[in-house]
Known about the structure:
Elements: H1 2-9, H2 11-17, E1 21-26, E2 29-34, H3 37-44, E3 54-58
Antiparallel strand pairs: 1-2, 1-3
Amino acid sequence: MANMEYLVANYDELAKEYNNKWIAILDRQVIASSDSIEELGQIIKKHARSECVVVEYMTTEPIAMFF
Length: 67
């Protein structure tokens, strides 16, 4: 939960730094980033607590949401 809270609280700053990249967050910090989710997945697998990692695609572009 803390990792998702970190992502939400810092989304704009992270989006600028990691624009158009996939990021992995663990312990309230970005532990890896990649252009490819497949590559990021390989990196995450090496972490002992990979099940706790939050993965998100970062973009500064507005995202349309439909409900």
